[in-house]
Amino acid sequence: MTICFTPAAAHLTDAAHHGDAARGNVAASDRAIAALQQVLASQADHDKILLRAAAGAGKSVALVRMVATALEHPKCHRVAVTAFANKQVFPLAGSLGTELGAATVCLFVSKDRLDDIPDHVLSAVTVATGLDDIPDTARVVLGTSHKLGAMYYRTRWSQLGSVANGDRPFDVLFVDEAWQLPLHRYATVEKLAPLSVGVGDVGQLPPIDPSENPWRGDPGYNPYRAWPTAFEALDSTVTIDLPAVWRPTAAQLPLWRAFYSDWDRLDCVAGPGDRRIDLPPLDGAVRTVWEAVATGAPTLLEIDGLPDAEAPDIDQPLLDELERLLEPLLAGGFSAISARHDGAWQPAGEKVIDSADPGDDPLIVILATRNQAVDDAAEMVERLTTRLDLPEGVLRASTVDSWQGQTNAITIAIHPLSGADKLDDFNSAFGRLAVTCTRATHGLLMLARSGLDQLLDDAAAQPGTPLGEPGTRSLPRQTHQRILNTFNRAALQLQP
Fold this sequence. Notes:
By secondary structure, this protein is α/β, with parallel strands linked by helices. It has 14 helices and 20 strands.
């Protein structure tokens, strides 16, 4: 087999790093906190504050800070914190409990979810399954929108006692991962407080497909879309963007900017050289591919000469080639190295995670769009794990949808357009591709059958408003091309 390598067309320019980048997020959070305090002090009358973030911007840290600051205000007695799913609520509860104390933070959860709560969260919070279990000391109550907004509780929240605003059970409602909460779910919790603060990544996939608008009476309204989109343009809403991301390598920043192209500015706290991958001795095409990934720049490997696939997004021959690429890397062992940062966000020492002793986040995650494709990838993971006796946490497979909100050192993904004959609403979804490309802290390898450029050149023109509502969230061909321009490109020709 032969391989041809082409560097990315898009290059990093005018980016701030380290403290210069991190201070931008602190300043944005300060503006959001100031807007919150003005409402609490009756000096402003807006009822929504939206803190918009790109993937990996440290939005949960900003939310914890906003909650803690709100509780210091004399006119804020109790707040609610909600999200769509328990997997979002639980870690946030742990962070708030660690910050504010277990007596102050109450996790309000269904009885059948008690066993799902991690031990470190249980030790940091008070857990309640009913209103009578919520202690008088609780000033923060967390729960999913399904729990907090359940019909049973809507007339019973008053038993918690009055708060500063007088007629609502909470002074502020914080919504984490706000762009994953559909409007019809937000409607069940909106009245819990006079002020809602939404924090989240605008590129996340919504939990319910919002591509079609079922509301015939008003084309501007769709109950299945992310709730902030119904309020962003209103005078009563304050919208602020976090201008820096913590997760990616500096070399990945052009890719992030391609997704969040309407941002006034997007910088990266990690500077050049802050993250790297130490590779074992490798040869040939395998060496070329992994050395490209190890630079931290996103890498696209297109393979020509493969047998036919079962379907465009169920491609065992493509996974077979991936297995051949992975085996020498995993057999030789590798390390993910990150710069530690001091109180001023400057590099100060290093953290090394070795594949022989992985940490909490998986080192390599293989992402695909369909469950059957992930099942095939999971079988490959099991084969490699058994054959090479890999420790738990080195290699994992998941659907893109299930992996949003998660991070890993190296992402290996099947490009949604691989093998496709046209662009459609599924393979061109903004959120699905954005989540795929923004999970990795050290390296991103995208796999595809050859022909992506030809597919996009031949694709019919179609609208695409990925960050605007209402309208389709699928990406037009020009946006796909702009994203691909940020990738190092490798073309692998298999021998007949």
